[in-house]
Design a protein that fits this description.
four-stranded antiparallel beta sheet, 4 strands, mainly beta
């Protein structure tokens, strides 16, 4: 995928975003333009997890877009 989906790394979040999101383990981002990211999470309860505690994407049928902006500020 051209947008390069990747897990959000908490140490890269700016202070304002770090304070908003305490659970970074299952936040993901897509690169949109330069440093602008679309940040999303699976919108499934309970989260379908594999044995290694990673998200089982084959069981995710809905996403929640949290924000679109540069989260490194």
């Amino acid at each position: 995928m051209a947008a390069r989906p990747h897990a959000v790394q908490s140490h890269k979040l700016g202070k304002s975003f770090y304070q908003k999101f305490s659970n970074f383990k299952h936040l993901f981002a897509l690169d949109l333009h330069k440093r602008v990211r679309l940040v999303f999470q699976a919108d499934v309860e309970p989260l379908p997890l594999k044995a290694d505690e990673s998200l089982d994407w084959s069981k995710v049928n809905q996403l929640c877009i949290l924000f679109v902006e540069d989260y490194n500020d």
